[in-house]
Amino acid sequence: MSAILAVCGENFCAMVSDGRMVEEPVGPEGPKVITEDLPKLRKINQNVIVGFAGDLLAAVQIVNALDEYDLRYLTLEKTVRILREKAATVPLQPVGVRLLVGGRGRKGGFLLTSLGSEQGFEPQTQPARPGAYLIEGACSHTDIGPFLEEKVKPDAAGWKSLDDVAGTLDSCIAAIAGQDKTVNTSYYRELVM
Questions:
Q1: d(C-alpha 167, C-alpha 165), whole Å
Q2: Coil vs helix vs strand at 94
Q3: What would you measure as the largest C-alpha separation in the chain, in angstroms?
Q4: Which residues are bridge partners to 190 per DSSP?
Q5: In the Cβ-directed half-sphere of 6, how many Cα atoms lie within 13 Å?
Q6: pTM for this one?
Q7: Largest CB tally within 10 Å, which of 57, 68, 115, 193?
Q8: Are strands 124-127 and 110-116 parallel, antiparallel or unpaired?
């Protein structure tokens, strides 16, 4: 019921999501669309972005746990801890939840963390490296790996601007939406530099 994509380089982290929310579970007749314009991204502060896919009602509850803190001072690492703790208390639909947290870490470097219900919300954090991009995505009903391999990774070598990155991520979501009716092409973007 959603798609999110993230790219982190040594100087930025960008995320893009679609806007469709559907009723779960999706039946054989296809998805029942609840809304077409729900961003699945939230910029926490100038250093941290959170994106989510899956059981959106549960994901929103998890992400809203951050509101109990002064968002201006949340680091990426603290954000991940709060999300992980809250996720353990929220009932989930079988589709599960996947969260991506990107941005600048405590020591100033860019990081990308993935945590999801399939792994018991155990965070997997990767630091950005010079000359390389961290590329991650999540989609509720479609394996996103082939789309990242076919649509995003080949374009990365040619990126010259953030507009290039956004265009690639948008086209990847469009390709997913062409095959998965729980995803649409209403694009929402967030950026940390």
A1: 5
A2: coil
A3: 49
A4: 15
A5: 32
A6: 0.94
A7: 115
A8: antiparallel
